[in-house]
């Protein structure tokens, strides 16, 4: 790496000092809720050094000032994009999608009029919200009788652009049955697969930072929230803030799906646990309960 940089006439940025690493982690945690510890030092340092080079900053001090004070916030967004992890694929933890169509949606349809609103956050490159849409179309017999709105959000602007395009490699589709691939995707000349336009248009994608109340304020009246495998990167305070935001976004009686390794018990006492099918999910109490 050093030889390549020198050949390009660009010096390798110095390693972060202990003080710089701590300052950066505190700043990033305050902005995103994501807390990096010493075990993530190499990951953080490499990403910061990449952004120092990309911006032509003279060093950490110069770059850190840019991320904090740039009026447009463009480099802060670039930094967030570089630091966030987007590991996902179609039909990940698919037993929860079965719970959605066999238990949750029929319950919501029985007890409330109007549209059913589903929110996927973080949506990453779109595999989760598109899996939700496909599951509803394939496995909920009453889908045509109800107005279903699906929203998808992420803090990373780059993955949102990828999600809107709906183009995936074989790895993202490895859990998708062949017949569904044929039904919902077109094969591109380069061997990748693109979702049909009708499915892509059915999802409303937008940027959201879960620990920023102003960012989540437009999401209200949701009936289902999928928030899976995000909060493992948060500390306890940020988890509580995120759950407060999700609670406010939900209509009374709405449901939250967490990742299989996550539990609401350490995050919030506002929700009640429900065992539906093979899933433990969490419900916002109905009015009067």
The appropriate CATH architecture of the largest domain is 3-Layer(aba) Sandwich
CATH class division of the largest domain: Alpha Beta
Major sheet summary line:
7 strands, mixed
Q: By helix and strand content, what is the structural category?
A: alpha/beta
Which consecutive residue ranges, at least 5 long each, have pLDDT under 50?
1-9
Strand content: 15-25%
Looking at CATH, the homologous superfamily of the largest domain is Vaccinia Virus protein VP39
Helix content: 40-55%
| Total domain modules | 2
Tally of DSSP helical segments? 12
Widest sheet: strand ordering = 6-2-1-7-8-10-9
- Mean pLDDT figure: 90
The span between the termini is: 61 Å
Strand elements, count: 10
Shape: globular
Radius of gyration: 21 Å
CATH topology of the largest domain: Rossmann fold
- Strand/helix succession: HHHHHHEHEHEHEEHEHEHEEE
Question: Which descriptors would you attach to this protein?
Answer:
Rossmann fold, globular
Strand-helix topology:
Blueprint (H helix, E strand, L loop, with lengths): L1 H6 L10 H15 L8 H15 L4 H10 L4 H10 L11 H17 L4 E5 L6 H13 L8 E7 L2 H9 L1 E2 L9 H7 E3 L5 E3 L1 H5 L1 E5 L5 H4 L5 E6 L8 H14 E9 L13 E5 L2 E5 L6
Parallel strand pairs: 1-2, 1-7, 2-6, 7-8
Antiparallel strand pairs: 3-5, 4-5, 8-10, 9-10
Describe this structure in words.
With 289 residues, the chain is α/β, with parallel strands linked by helices. The protein has two domains: 2-83, Chemotaxis receptor methyltransferase CheR, N-terminal domain (Chemotaxis Receptor Methyltransferase Cher, domain 1, Orthogonal Bundle), CATH 1.10.155.10; 95-283, Rossmann fold, CATH 3.40.50. 43% of the residues lie in helices and 17% in strands. The strands form two sheets. The protein has a seven-stranded mixed beta sheet with strand order 6-2-1-7-8-10-9. A three-stranded antiparallel beta sheet has the order 3-5-4. It is globular, with a radius of gyration of 21 Å. It starts with a helix and ends in a 6-residue tail after the last strand. Mean pLDDT is 90; it is low at 1-9.
């Amino acid at each position: 790496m050093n030889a390549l940089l020198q050949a390009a006439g660009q010096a390798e940025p110095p390693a972060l000092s202990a003080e710089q690493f701590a300052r950066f982690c505190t700043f990033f945690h305050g902005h995103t809720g994501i807390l990096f510890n010493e075990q993530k030092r190499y990951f953080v340092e490499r990403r910061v050094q990449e952004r120092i080079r990309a911006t032509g900053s003279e060093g950490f001090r110069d770059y850190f000032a840019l991320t904090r004070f740039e009026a447009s916030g463009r480099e802060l967004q670039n930094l967030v994009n570089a630091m966030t992890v987007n590991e996902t694929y179609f039909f990940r933890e698919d037993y929860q999608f079965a719970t959605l169509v066999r238990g949750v949606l029929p319950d919501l349809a029985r007890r409330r009029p109007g549209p059913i609103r589903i929110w996927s956050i973080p949506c990453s490159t779109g595999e989760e919200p598109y899996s939700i849409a496909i599951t509803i179309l394939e496995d909920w017999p009453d889908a045509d009788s109800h107005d279903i709105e699906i929203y998808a959000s992420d803090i990373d602007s780059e993955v949102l652009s990828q999600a809107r395009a709906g183009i995936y490699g074989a790895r993202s589709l490895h859990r998708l049955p062949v017949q569904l691939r044929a039904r919902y995707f077109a094969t591109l000349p380069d061997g990748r697969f693109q979702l049909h336009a009708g499915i892509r248009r059915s999802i409303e994608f937008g940027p959201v930072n879960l620990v920023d109340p102003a960012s989540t304020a437009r999401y209200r009246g949701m009936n289902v929230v999928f928030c899976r495998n995000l909060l493992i990167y948060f500390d306890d305070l940020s988890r509580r803030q995120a759950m407060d935001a999700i609670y406010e976004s939900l209509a009374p009686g709405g449901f939250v799906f967490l990742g299989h390794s996550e539990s609401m018990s350490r995050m919030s006492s506002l929700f009640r646990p429900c065992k539906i099918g093979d899933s433990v999910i969490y419900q916002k109490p109905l009015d009067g309960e």
